[in-house]
Amino acid sequence: MKVEIWLDRAKDYARELIWRRQSQRVKVALLGRNLSDGLLAKLVIYLLLSIVAYLYLQPLLYMVSTMLKTVSDLLDPAVKWIPRVVTWENLTKAYEGLQYPEALRNTAVIALTCSIVQVMVCSMTGYALARLAVPFKGLITALVLLTFLIPPQVIIIPLYVIFSKLGLLNTLFVFLIPAIFGQGLKGALFILIFRQFFKSQRRAWKRQRSWTVRPQADFISVLCCRWLNPPVWLSFSSHSSGIGTCTMSRPCSWPKGLHRYRSVLTIWNPC
Length: 271
Prior knowledge:
There is one protein chain. It is built from eleven helices and no strands. By secondary structure, it is mainly α. The chain has a domain at 95-243: MetI-like fold (Orthogonal Bundle), CATH 1.10.3720. Helix 5 (100-131) packs parallel to helix 8, helix 5 (100-131) packs across helix 9 (187-200) and helix 9 (187-200) packs antiparallel against helix 11. 14% of the residues are buried.
C-alpha cells in the first residue's frame, strides 16, 4: 500500500516536473529570455513595422493605381485601387507634357554645377573660420549663423528683383551666383558644418603649410582627405536634392520646377 502511494506521488511529481518544463519552454518561446527574443515581441515589432510601411507606401501605391486609371475610372467612386482597364496613356502624356528629357538635362547641369561650386566654397570658408587667424572671425561666424536663421521667404522677393534688374532671370546664374558666394541652398548650414568639423579634428598635416605660399595645393589636400568625405557628401547630396527638377517652359528658360510632381495629367474633355 505504501509502495503504491509512493509510486503515485512519484508519478504526480514527474507529471508536474514535465508540465513545468514544457510551460517554461513555451514561455521562453513566446516571451524569450530577453525582451526582444520572444515570438510575441517579434510579432509586435513586425506588426508595427508593417503599419509604418503601409503608411509610407499607401500614397505611393495610390499614385500608381491612379496613374493606370482611365478617365471613367477616375470619375467612378466605386473604383478605388484596382482599375477596370489598365492604361499607360496618362504616363505618356505626363512624360510629353513635362518635357522630361529636357528637364532632366537641366536638373543635372544645375545640380552638379551648383553643388560642386558650393561644396568648394563652403569647405574653404569653414576651414578658414576654423583654422586660420581671420580678423573678426567671431563676427563673421555670427553673420553666417544669422543668414541661416533668416527664413528664405523674407529674401526671395528682393533676390527676384535684383536678378530681374541684372537681367539674369531664366539663366543658370540665378543658382550659380549664390553658390559662388556660399549662400546657395542651405549654404550657411554647410559652412557651419565644415567649420565645426575642422575645429573638432586634430591637425592632420605633420608639417606646417601656408595658404599664402601654396593655397591651391593646400586646399586640394584639404578636400582630398578621407576623413572629410562625410561632410562633403552631406553638403553635396543635400544641395543636389534641394535643386529639384528644373523644367523649361521655353527653350531659353531655366526656371526652378517642383521637386516632386504629385499631380496627374488628365484630359477631362477628350472631345
